[in-house]
Design goal:
heterodimer, A: 10 strands, rod-shaped, B: seven-stranded mixed β-sheet, six-stranded antiparallel β-sheet, 29% strand, elongated
Chain lengths: 338, 801
């Protein structure tokens, strides 16, 4: 009889190997282990087994029940996994179809550039301040040591509103307005729109500048060089080569124009740098004592430097935009590239 | 200013390459903007001599010449009349290229072979003379390339001279800088000439009635001049610096102006009534015809050079038509004067006459350079016109030109300003190189006197700049300022603007930057009311174009204009915003109020047309949702949307004001079809404009509250209300009763049409109930909910569906 048990196990095992699906495995379990199953049927015959072998028979039948049950469970688990895998594969999607995007908007390149520049000067401790765009002649010119009837006014073609009021031609008037209100140390930058009566391939009647001003005891031209060198290396990379050269602004002395070595040609001369190898990027200088007089600072006590740079121009250089005018045409095809 | 290298070398030796020289000038503050190589406009043209001339057998107007190039004789057919045997002329040989793209070919002219062409100045683009064959000096080597023989190559620097350096508006001025750079010596043009016995005072006099405008007037008279074209060398010099040759008298004045920086004028003496010069102010309404034959009506403040009766020149700006040098002029009065810079600038601005002379006078010429330039011009004119210089010059100097004061230069101040120590010997050496006189003061202070032509040097800082410039900015070290800590409490408006634009970006809106000025028609196109303050924009007195003639008073026009341009370019779906200012006129003499605004525009589809989304058009509620996001982020919870027909340019049924704390901070709405039509925009658009400062002033702060731990229970109810009734009225009614268990009421559905009575709409309301200390029971909720529903239904024209 014990042999019958072994035969049953072998048969069930062999059958198990051929089955794939959950349903088949469940019916196999019923067939052998169910209440009306074959193992149960064998056990019913226990009465015909000699008494002394009954214990062995019972033990062995329990073992076989456990073995079979475990084997069927394992097979079931496998079958279920197989089925899920197949089901999942049937749900395959085309991953190359475009995603369900709600398009995000972009920041104007001038704003991106302005934020970057402001961030650099903020790290150096400069505070952002603002001033009016429609400005008094006094702040735009006079207090910056550009009197009426001075040829220096020709340097900045001006939009006039009425006698004594202009569209500011630079962000420099903010210097004066702030110095009037505070005592040194002064450490400010002032970004904003400025206006020049000029319109051609390389000029738009409106553009953006950032003014910088640092006034304290003992500020030197060497400091000016240091701050601006740091700035340009931050913007254009540590390899950037700068050149400070003498220039003239009525409100600074000594004045310096800052050029960077053309990143396109590396200084050999190309279309972007007008064959010179250098690109003019900024005007700067030590604050002229005459300006300090206007705001009642003592030039024997304090000194400082100021600079003004065109944000738009820096953006053009940095992003490789070919034409300044594109900045204010607001063409979607332009805006979406930033 | 254009500067000829060849001319420059007349006054200073230059042993630098062109690029080196340009680099040094730029680093000395004289920025070289461009370098142009000047070359002859021809090739293959040589010096030749006419051996014989005989008539052409077959043409009356042509002659046959045999010309030699030294080793070869060429038969040439020629039509000019001005040549004779022995003349030295330019010969364009076969294969020569001459201006106009012509190549000379071997040709037969009326049956006679011609091996080239004799050329006029004009044909070779050397000068304007087209009257005959160019006659060359006899001493040129035959057969030599003409360009070489005449030395027609040159290098032209275009130098951007800053307004503080009028002394560099001359070749000598630039040469002086080159001398300082190279250490070579500056050579002044020598002035030596003979005078006739006739004293100038017997011929003329100068009377200055406006000494404030004309502190100095000098004059000479040259008699027996023959007016003709200047010699080639002078014409080439003038051409090199961009001046057109006129005749020898005028050319001399221009030449000396370019050489020395002192503008001069030549009068035809015979047209000076009473033979004398009177310098006075113009009379109001005085009419004068200038050299360019334009009639000028004067004010009362222009300096006029007059004869005994009438004006003959606008002082320092332009001569008069009535006294200009003519072909038959014999006696010339040369003027060399110093005029008040401000006066010249005012007059030239007002008359809109910016001449080379005015440009120099208004920047300030050397107040002591008049006589030298006058003598130099007299000498040159006598040399090239055969004239005789009358004895003596007139030098009227009624008002002493301010003497240049000595300036104290503290050596320490130089170091303190530049951040590097420069030895006093070095400073002295550098200053001397640009003719600044150094009187040694005490050890730590120098007493310096700038030369008279350096009108820009009046203060210590001016001298420090010269030291820095000559020392070299590149040699000044790079340092970092050790600055006292500054504690600022400046309000950082930028941070909030950044935050708002980040939200807008996230919502799909891209930033635009429009010009601050718009067309003056904008206010009409938007249909603004006559009483609207925005109809009275700040006007630009000198706009570039009408489209940019007034400062904008609203953002909406700019946004619509951007939409129109994009539509023209084929982009019909736009979500854009701009943060910028509008300018509100505060009346004459006052600065406008500049208000920082946010403007947004939405047109076209809600989402980009792609396989996931159907063609859903964006509308009012899309943009409203964006604003709600912004308000929520700024923790501003009480913005009211008031449908009071916010703006004339908005759709009367789809627009509202945005009200915060009882104050109108902006508007939101669909653009009125009339405005779309007026602006030639086809598609509907929704816009908003918000006063950013008022918005950010109301910014709330984050106040965390523990969130409830007990579950909520909700009830939905649909009510019917009149189509015109605003849903907000129901919500407001619910909030009126302060039910503690009611956590939130929201609108989850709006429905009209089928199964809804005409003139009504169905609003689906969801009430959410929750208690902070226990799980609410159905009975509790039902009680409260019933009370609320009863309260709503009690309202006029509300019924439960």
């Amino acid at each position: 009889m014990t042999n019958d048990l072994e035969v049953l196990l072998a048969k069930a095992d062999a059958e198990l190997q051929t089955l794939q699906t959950e349903e088949e495995l469940l019916s196999l379990r019923t067939k052998y282990l169910g209440r009306k199953g074959q193992l149960t049927a064998l056990l019913r015959n226990i009465a015909v087994i000699p008494k002394e072998r009954r214990a062995d028979f019972g033990k062995r039948s329990n073992e076989i029940k456990d073995i079979l049950s475990d084997r069927i469970d394992v097979a079931l688990k496998e079958a279920r996994n197989r089925k899920r895998s197949n089901d999942l594969l049937r749900q395959r999607i085309d991953v190359t179809l475009p995603g369900r995007r709600v398009h995000y908007g972009r920041l104007h390149p001038v704003t991106q550039m302005r934020r970057e520049i402001s961030a650099i000067f903020s790290r150096l401790g400069f505070t952002v301040v603002e001033g009016p765009e429609v400005e008094l002649d006094y702040y735009n010119f006079e207090a910056l040591n550009i009197p009426a009837d001075h040829p220096a006014r020709d340097m900045q073609a001006t939009f006039y509103i009425e006698d004594g009021i202009v569209l500011r031609t630079h962000t420099s008037p903010v210097q004066v307005r702030k110095m009037e209100k505070m005592r040194p140390p002064v450490k400010i930058i002032s970004p904003g729109r400025v206006y020049r009566h000029d319109s051609d391939v390389s000029h738009t009647p409106m553009f953006h500048q950032i003014e910088g001003l640092l006034v304290d005891r003992g500020v030197t031209f060497a400091d000016l060089k240091g701050v601006l060198t740091y700035f340009f290396k931050e913007v254009f990379g540590s390899e950037t080569v700068l050149r400070f050269r003498p220039s003239f602004f009525p409100f600074t002395e000594p004045s310096a124009e800052v050029d960077i070595r053309c990143m396109l040609c590396g200084g050999c001369g190309c279309r972007v740098c007008g064959q010179s190898g250098w690109i003019e990027v900024l005007g700067s200088g030590m604050v002229d004592p005459a300006v300090f007089k206007y705001v009642d600072y003592d030039p024997e006590e304090v000194s400082g430097f100021a600079f003004g740079l065109g944000i738009d121009r820096i953006a053009l250089l940095k992003y490789g935009i070919s034409d300044l005018r594109l900045l204010f045409e607001n063409d979607q095809r332009f805006l979406e590239q930033f | 200013m254009l500067v000829s290298l060849k001319w420059l070398k007349d006054y200073v030796d230059i042993d630098l390459s062109v690029q080196e020289l340009a680099g040094h000038l730029t680093m000395a503050g004289l920025e070289v903007d461009a370098i142009e190589e000047k070359k002859p406009a021809f090739s293959g043209v040589v010096v030749a001599k006419i051996l014989s001339i005989r008539p052409h057998p077959d043409a009356d107007k042509l002659v046959l010449c045999d010309v030699t190039t030294g080793d070869q004789v060429h038969p040439i057919v020629c039509g000019a009349k001005n040549i004779k045997d022995g003349d030295v002329v330019p010969l364009a040989k076969v294969g020569a290229k001459i201006p106009g793209g012509y190549t000379i070919k071997l040709s037969k002219i009326r049956g006679v072979q011609s091996e080239g062409m004799l050329c006029s100045e004009q044909e070779l683009a050397i000068g304007d003379d087209a009257s005959g064959i160019m006659l060359l000096p006899d001493d040129l080597a035959l057969g030599k390339d003409l360009g070489e023989a005449l030395d027609l190559t040159d290098i032209i620097f275009d130098i951007g001279v800053t307004p503080n350096r009028p002394d560099c508006l001359s070749i000598v001025g630039i040469a002086r800088e080159v001398a300082a750079i190279t250490g070579n010596k500056l050579r002044f043009p020598s002035v030596r000439f003979a005078e006739s016995d006739e004293d100038i005072t017997r011929l003329t006099s100068v009377e200055i009635l406006a000494p404030d405008l004309c502190p100095r007037y000098t004059a000479r008279i040259i008699k027996n001049v023959a007016i003709k074209p200047s010699p080639l060398w002078m014409r080439l010099r003038l051409d090199a610096v961009g001046l057109r040759a006129i005749n020898n008298a005028v050319d001399v004045t221009n030449f000396v102006m370019m050489e020395t920086g002192q503008p001069l004028h030549a009068f035809d003496y015979r047209f000076l009534e009473e033979g004398r010069i009177v310098v006075r102010r113009s009379k109001p309404g005085e009419v004068f015809i200038s050299l360019d034959e334009k009639e000028r009506v004067l004010r009362d403040d222009t300096l006029m050079i007059c004869d005994g009766q009438k004006p003959v020149a606008i002082g320092g700006i332009m001569g008069g038509h009535n006294s200009e040098v003519k072909d038959d002029t014999e006696t010339i009065l040369l003027e060399s004067a110093y005029f008040n810079p401000v006066s010249i600038r005012r007059s030239s601005k007002w008359l809109q006459m910016s001449t080379d002379a005015a440009f120099r006078f208004e920047r300030g010429i050397d107040p002591h350079g008049q006589v030298r330039a006058l003598d130099r011009a007299a000498q040159l004119l006598a040399e090239i016109s055969g004239g005789k210089i009358c004895k003596n010059a007139i030098d009227q100097c009624p008002k002493t030109i301010e003497k240049i004061e000595d300036i104290s230069l503290r050596i320490k101040k130089v170091g303190d300003t530049l951040g590097t120590k420069i030895e006093s010997e070095d400073i002295i050496r550098m200053l001397k190189s640009i003719e600044i006189e150094v009187k040694s003061g005490r050890d730590d202070t120098l007493l310096v006197t700038p030369p008279t032509f350096r009108v820009d040097l009046t203060r210590e800082i001016d001298i420090i700049e010269e030291v820095a410039r000559l020392y070299g900015y590149d040699r000044i070290p790079v340092a970092m300022p050790a600055v006292s800590a500054t504690l600022t409490t400046e309000k950082n408006g930028d941070a909030l603007a950044e935050r708002i634009s980040n939200i807008l970006n996230g919502c799909g809106y891209s930033e635009v930057i429009n010009y601050s000025f718009v067309t003056s028609k904008a206010v009409d196109l938007l249909g603004l009311d006559l009483a609207d303050q925005r109809r009275n924009p700040v006007k630009i007195a000198n706009p570039l174009t009408e489209d940019q003639s007034v400062m904008r008073t609203t953002m909406v026009y700019s946004l619509l204009e951007t939409m129109r341009k994009n539509a023209n370019a084929g982009s019909f779906n736009l979500k854009i915003f701009e943060m910028g200012r509008v300018y509100l006129n505060q009346g004459a003499g006052k600065l406008p109020e500049e208000r920082i605004c946010l403007g947004c525009l939405l047109t076209g589809v809600r989402y980009e047309d792609i396989w996931h989304f159907k063609d859903l058009q964006g509308d009012f509620y899309d943009l409203k949702g964006v604003l709600e996001n912004i308000f929520e982020d700024l923790k501003i919870s009480d913005v009211k949307y008031v449908s009071d027909v916010a703006e004339p340019f908005l759709h009367p049924g789809k627009a509202c004001s945005l009200v915060l704390g009882g104050e109108r901070i902006g508007y939101l709405g669909e653009v009125h079809p009339n405005v779309l039509d007026a602006m030639d925009v086809k598609n509907p658009a929704t816009v908003c404009e918000i006063d950013l400062e008022r918005l950010t002033a109301n910014k709330g702060s984050i106040g965390y509250k523990d969130f409830p731990r007990f579950p909520s229970s909700s009830r939905d109810v649909a009510v019917l209300i009149d189509v015109e009734q605003e849903a907000e009225t129901i919500i407001a009614a619910v909030r009126e009763i302060d039910e503690e268990l009611l956590e939130k009421v929201s609108i989850f559905d709006v429905y009209g049409g089928e199964r809804i009575p005409e003139g009504k709409k169905s609003i689906g309301l969801r009430f959410c109930y929750r208690s902070g200390d226990h799980t609410v029971t159905d009975e509790e909720v039902n009680q409260v909910h019933d009370r609320l529903v009863k309260h709503i239904v009690a309202l006029k024209s509300v019924s439960v569906r």
